Amino acid sequence: MENLDYGIVGNCRSAALISKTGSLDWCCLPEFDSPSVFAKLLDADKGGHFGMEPLGEYSVSQKYKEQTAILITRFNCTDGVFELHDFMPRYYKQKGGYHRPPQLIRYIKLISGKPRFKVDYDPKLEYAKGLTQTYVKKDYVVSLTEGESFDSIFLYTSFDKEKVVHGDEIVLRKDGFFLLTYHECIFQPSLEFAHLELERTNVYWLDWSHRTPNFRDFNAQINRSAITLKLLSYGKTGAVLAAATTSLPETIGEVRNWDYRFCWIRDASMVIKVMSELGHKNVAKRYLDFIIGLVPDKGERFQIMYGINGEKQLTEKTLDHLEGYKGSKPVRIGNAAFEQVQNDIYGILMDVILQQLELFNQDIENGEELWDITKNMAWEVERNWQDSDKGIWEFRGGDQHFTFSKLLCWVAIDRAIKVARILGKGNKIEYWVSLRNRIHQDIHRQAWNEEVQAFTQSYGSPYMDASVLLMEPYGFIEAKDPKYVATVKAVERELENDGLLYRYKNEDDFGLPSSSFTICTFWFVNSLFKIGEEARALEIFEQLLGYSNYLGLFSEDIDFKTKRLLGNFPQAYSHLALIECAMNFSKKDREERIRENMGLEEN
């Protein structure tokens, strides 16, 4: 079974996906949301790739250099051994700021012997919409396209450029390198320079990982997920991407294919909350600056999502010339969901603002702007909480009164009250407390389905929805409250399938869902943990970890039958939820926890 067997490398400006055999199959330059340079991921024939293949028999293995975003592919050949170290340069500059050029370096390290290999260099610029032509020049290889728009990419290398371009045999007698760059270099890169960039980037990631706390359990998984979330953050503005790809399908052959290279307020805010809990406060500060920059006018309403540079128009288009991942059309760029109304974003963002004030009160900047945003969001909630919307799952059909949206309206006002207390703004509190109580009562009255014995997907609905599991984590209801316990049991009864969860099972705009939404299973694990079923929660969690790819990375979805990864990759949602679960389990010793749950005493 083929899977999303890729590693991600990046530098908080862009990212690339490298296959388990060392082929560069997805990369957009100069930024995350730029047109692709390599897109074999979306069309094996037309998309373009950058691979290398040893001559003769060989075996290949791949791993990350521990606690870094440097991906090492090792080739064991009949005539020698070599490694491919893939990375995008990132490190702190002596004059301040971060060095993160639109470059990818492939450092070839000779381990033993004289291995032979050939290069398959086939860039296809601008989503492969037109003809890309490649030319060998004195100092570099340049690839150009002049279709709808002009674009170019440069390749510098220590190897014979003609042999590289034509796929001729290369004998590796010493270390070498490839430097792929969007801009022509001012100074000619050397092997020593490439090695220095590798070492500087290695030190950056080791230092960054050192600031992530160590945990008793699942420490490696937490660290890898934290690095992955960091790779999905955009250093220039502070935006956080939902994923690094576009149009990887939720189900093979179907049309649920979306562009996730944008910043959803919901996804990003959840990521920032987790990263803050891990102590990475600079990521949080940059994100808050990004949010402040999006709202120049006090009366302007938040969109649910923005471009990574703050773009508000994300017009959706299809690339009909591409076959799609495993033939799953259409391939989309842009995302029409930017026009949707989703009332949950206010609560999620307010939750992050409160957290930042609580964690970093002495260091917080822009307090006046944050107070303006708080008042603005409370005003929006007051005006809109009784309205229907598209909900967390972005139904493209008619609006509904989704329980999750109502819950997060309650969260928005609850957090606004706490922010007001921190900032000493008592004049708003009494009115907001009254509003919070009205929303709380409304949810209990209309979201609870007596027949189902659970809080359901929307007011008056008999359908279950995994998002209602978040009622406890957001503080709306106690974990041991009979209504919450009953809701968890109803979700398990209706949505669980072989240890994985549907988001929901009722028909949506595209028919019946047929894959598991990864974050929902993590939510379910946390819910079981909270209601006291810790041994079962641990069992499902460890089973779920086994469904990651060979590098510990998760996509958006998992196929119920085959357990293959589906959807955009790697998915921020999935990794933030993994960290939340792992941190919960790490708060208690595993054996002690299981003994308690089984009613056993320690010896």
TrEMBL record:
Alphabetized GO MF terms: hydrolase activity, hydrolyzing O-glycosyl compounds
Coiled-coil intervals, chain numbering: none
Gene Ontology biological process terms, A to Z: carbohydrate metabolic process
Highest rank taxon of the organism: Bacteria
Keyword terms of this UniProt record: Hydrolase
Domain Trehalase-like N-terminal, chain residue ranges per copy: 8-139
Pfam families: Glyco_hydro_15, TREH_N
Residue stretches making up the GH15-like domain: 223-582
Protein name: Glycoside hydrolase
Organism: Sediminicola luteus
